[in-house]
Amino acid sequence: MKDFDHINNKKIIILTGDNNFYGQTRKPWVSMNVMAIKERLSHYSYEVNIYNIQDVFNKKITLENEIILYSFSQKPNVRQYIIDVLTFLNKNNTIIPSLDLLYCHENKGYQKIYKEMCGLTGLKAWYFSSLKEIDNYNIPYPIILKTITGSNGKGVFLIQNRRDLEKRLKKLSKIEFLKSFDLFRRHYFRKKTFPEYPNHNDYEDYLQYKEYITKNENFILQEFVPGLTYDYRILALEGKYFAMKRHTREGDFRASGTKIFDFTFNPEDALLNCAEKVYNHLDSPFLSMDIVFNGHEYFLIEFQASHFGVSAILKSKGYYTRIKNEWRFVKEKLNVEYEIADALDRYILKHKI
Predict the structure, then answer these.
(1) Span 95-115, pLDDT tens digits
(2) Cross-strand bridge partners of residue 159
(3) What is the pTM of this model?
(4) Which of 9, 75, 97, 329 has the smallest CB count inside 10 Å?
């Protein structure tokens, strides 16, 4: 493990979940060793304080002008809680990863918006909240449908035509059981007049109410690349790039979730160049990228800056880095917690935070 011979007196706050949770290692519910991250940062002369994220807000611990490294969660209620608290803390502190990257996590819709804002172009994609919105767009079928949340291939479907899309979105939409009875009542038995609303029509009201109570899924439609049998997962940790190839199963277009990994392939420079370009645009000490090749060019599909799988670090024999403008492979077995701390340190020094 390379050592860094600098002295830095800055403070770092690590915000964790319950029981010092900082995700993730083996699975989304398995934490890294936060004390190991702290010890490594202390080695570089940082003063590190660890707080539970709930305590910061509810016990009114004052944090101002701090560098804050925060944990994330895949649980929807905890995820929203973290977003709420970090949005507040971002006003007077430097949060890492950035607030935009926090919003991108488990939100493929915001990812699309943020990628375009950062100047990252790629496969064509559209972001919608209902089927009726697509009528004014020329959607090229077949196409990939993605719900905005979900990992390991969940919520990802190959859509052949408009009818197929309608059927799939209908399955993703639902009306709560009790509200369906109320809807039935309004449709067949409700007779109402409102003197103050003389234009009221029961049937129109029923249709509007039905649309109102229907729970729809926001979704992405993304250009389909035919014939893919694998994609790439690249983890970037401020100058270090860990690569793995993810293979599809026979008869399935999805590589995510198959667990069929290859850590021994030799990535092309063009793949690493693509990952480096994305990393520099998105500005985070840590970034997990899913990248595909269409036979001519590499494209970013999805990314995460927090709470990503770390198999590429643990199972690879080393990492790729630029040395004198050339990509070199460095063979080394690494410790995940140390790599997170080291990447954060290099990032802080590079950006003079």
Answers:
(1) 999 999 999 998 999 999 999
(2) 143
(3) 0.85
(4) 9
